[in-house]
Amino acid sequence: MNRWLKSLCVVASLSASSVMAADGYVDKDILISADEAVKLIGNPKVMFVSGDNEDIYKLGHIKGSVEMYAHHLHHSEIDGEMHCAPLYRCVDDAQELIGKKGISNDMTIIAYDDFKGPNATGVYSFFKSYGHKNVKVLNGGRAAIMAVDPAQKEYDALNKDLKAAKKAAKDAKEKLKAATTDADKAALSDTVAKADANAKTLQAKMTEVEKRLLVVKGEEVDQPKTYKIDPKKIDYTIIAGKDEVKHAMEDILKNGKNSKYVIIDSRGIAEIIGERKMDNVARGGHIPGATFIEWSRISDADKKLSFKSADEIKQVYASYGVTPDKTIYAYCQVGAGRGSEHITALQLLGYKNVKVFTGSWDVWGNDMNLPIKR
After folding, report:
1. Cystine design at 89: which of 26, 75, 185, 366 (Cβ 3.0–4.6 Å)?
2. Angle of helix 150-178 versus helix 182-210 axis, rounded to 10
């Protein structure tokens, strides 16, 4: 009975969070707000998954979460060959990776990153493509959790006071070096002693508060589980391989704005023109006919949220002719990241025919049979 009640609470909490976090979007099941997500930290039926890399994870991650770096979810050989495309990974490889992270099929996944969105959406796209039922994106990521954590606010205030105490001690020590009278030396020595004592007290308080923080530092702690992917539940409607994207490219080159396809290149201009490329990719450049919309046009850096408002995103896509009647592909370097940021944003707006090109430039740039443009 207790287990049933806990599960019911999770479902009820997520239902409420969907309405609150996704206000203004057509699809209200993708995002979860920090106010609602914070209630689920520590719930055994919920796993927070960081899409940021291992180094960032160690510097700060949501307590109890695991790291699945978005750029490593896409698996290919050194020459860009993906053996089970359009899947990010072959089924046996994917389920082994997921199971090692302590994730089971009945868990709700809450994907997050620092706050920007791409790496969180990479995790989201990865799990959704394999048919995992309950997956959310934490809007605002780690930064949003820190902003609503009372312990974090207390810790930050203590840290501010600690810095002030250390500065007071340092300034007094500098003045002490130049002091010439016994009275001045005594007064400054007393100031140093009091500042040092205050700093020690503050440090002790911070150590205690640190135990209550929701975002912590350190290594990942895994409790491996068995995870099984049902091939019948794999969602091929949200992912695409190079042949499908090549067909779309040919249609775009033939029909221009009248094409029923759009290919979004979400990378920066240096990558698009071939000035910058990854070491393992043979060629730099972009897919001919692609529409250039850098991922940062969608993420809300000012508010530290993973996505701008629905109206703002609509305006961006409308200005580029990215309309709901078209089939839309998005790519970056590896698909899970900047490319998935666009596809998730389009899903939020209710677009139906949208797909991540999972191979992205890692595959296209290495295939000498595919055309490129710089």
Report:
1. 75
2. 160
